[in-house]
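Re-running the complex after MR caught last week's input typo. The corrected sequence lines follow. Everything else is unchanged.
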Amino acid sequence: MEKSRPLWDNPLQFVFACISYAVGLGNVWRFPYLCQMYGGGGFLIPYFIMLVVEGMPLLYLELAVGQRMRRGSIGAWKMISPYLCGVGVASVVVSFFLSMYYNVINAWAFWYLFHSFQDPLPWASCPLNGNRTGDEAECARTSPTQYFWYRRTLNIAPSLEAAGALQWEQALCLTLAWLLVYLCILRGTESTGKVVYVTASLPYCVLIIYLIRGLTLHGAVNGLIYMFTPKLEQLANPKAWISAATQIFFSLGLGFGSLIAFASYNEPSNNCERHAVVVSLINSATSIFASIVTFSIYGFKATFNYESCMSKVILLLTNAFDLEEGSLTADNLGAVQGHLQAAHPQRYAELQPQLKNCSLEAELDTAVQGTGLAFIVYSEAIKNMEVPQLYSVLYFVMLLMLGIGSMLGNTAAILTPLTDSKFIASHLSKEVVSGLVCFINCIIGLIFTMEAGNYWFDIFNDYAATLSLLLIVLVETIAVCYVYGIRRFEKDLHTMIGHKPSWYWKVMWAFASPLLIISLFIFYITDYILTGTLQYQAWDAAQGQLVTKDYPGYALAVIGLLVAASTMCIPLGALLTLARRRLRRGRARPVA
Amino acid sequence: MLSSASQMHRMLSKYGLVSKQLWEIMLISNVLLCNVTDRVSFWFVVTDSAKNVTTVAGSEVEAAIRMNRNRINSAFLLSDKTLQFLKISSTIAPPVEPSTPVWLIVFGVVLCLTVAGIVFLIVTGIQRRKKQNKESSETEDLEEKCEVTVTIENGIPCETLDLKAGHINGVYAADDERFASL
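Corrected-run output:
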């Protein structure tokens, strides 16, 4: 007799699991950047349109498939059509790649968290040089927060080719991150269901605290006004619409198989339609909420930097021209500068290279995304707040919760098909399978703790999941609508939920979403072709800033392998099934 | 605000800034200021009252200031960042570093908690599985016992009937075969 499938204790656990998985680091560090680049408040228009056209229907589709088939991704797509087992395998492969590199972010969050228990914070000021007469050379060329990120945390190599040694501190943090993930997934839904209560709700508590703190910071309003003023002319830029579509797509985590895995542990009568709408709305609302916090932090940081730049210029001029203390202020600086230039032109010209033009807009304009935003910009803002240790701990705990929540979904996407397979389930227990997966991922993940590890991380981040996911979701949608049949799917939903899906869902599934995904796919491919050689940003210690370099040949080969490994599974799976059927028919024919 | 010269004198005399060769009392008139600006910056020289019109060597004054920098600063309630002596760079105090880095301690705590949690969950999982196995084998035994108790007829268990010297009546033994199988 088949062992009954483990279930969530209540539907709330399922919703929390989906929210915990969907609300991840992308909401915090990608959406604010997109908002800033593509027209501030005006970006919300394409964002919501894409949510309605693409986000909600595709999320509902995946949840419904998982709940109906009650299997992980491989089993579910096999039941839809035996030729589609490759889709499930592709999802598992992409999830495997993702979990390999994603946990490194949790390792970094741990590193920063552990370093937050010091006074002063280690990224608050530069360390001293050898003879203690000044700041260390590399740190003096850049800022303390950048130095702490690039030198102390990553110990980054100057280029991808210079692989460098393993950083034992990072390796320790990565091991800890994987142990923590193992602890959460050890018992399957029993443990995951309890953990997601924390990982889903704690980030919101921290965001609320940060919202209150952020809005009361000096200069926060500058950031909010600058970012949210809608620049509606950006709506004419096709890149804005494409970015909105891409952001919705990847933010919900479609195509990895995690949503199918989570939904497979549902009661068959669960109302997944309502849950799909709720989860996608909460995900988008969290993005907007996080960007309000981020922009107020930006505003504070930009105002702080602007004011320190001004005081540096004032000090320089006061010292050079021996003016009275306090005679130069921010208000009269411009006028006095002009007067000094006229009165002492030679001396002023000598000083000219040291005098920076301080501009608030220039500070606000520095649009940052990704790890740079999370670990550099935020830590720079935190070090200037009162009681920085408290805010630092809160912030990095929030990053950890977001990261662990997404990791739970990733590992579920890998483990559910494995534990569903009778072969593996009969030989190995759930704990051993989870342990093996975590161990293998940890060992491979040590690559990202080497000196050039961050460059490999960027490769995985940019290329491992993007194209493959688009293809996977496209095949999924077409499979459900045209291979399985939308009428059959309707009937399944009717038995599960109690009512048939409305015409809106059917139109989106059958026409709008596939068309949108195809256009995204075409855009990505043309973008790759037009750009020519792929490039990356390398840290140059001598200059104290990022420089652009070309990828070497073997890195390009790895990129190609990453994309091919997952996308090729789909046609290969179909061919394999075809071959197996032919063989079986060939064997059966003599008997008949 | 007191004049700069008197401040300078007070500090120089209070802290015994005398040359190693001259054990003299410094008077305020020994400190000469010039080029005082609005910026509260000035040049000063220290004269040697023993030998008129000569000044104490600059290097000696520099060495004295370097030695007593902290006390000079605290006299003015200033710091190395707010009171600058040109050409005398300050040695910055090194940051306090504990013997074990703090982060390792916190790391150790979190690591121990996580490993303890994993071990606890694994052990309870194994115990639960053993109990389940024992329970399922116990229920199997119980079912067997039920079958045994059912076959007591007329107060005599069938097994004992077989064991005791009893003869099986051949007429009745073949009864089953007379009936057609369903």
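None of the earlier attempt is carried over here. The first strand of chain A starts at residue 535 and ends at 540. Strands of chain A lie at 535-540, 545-550.
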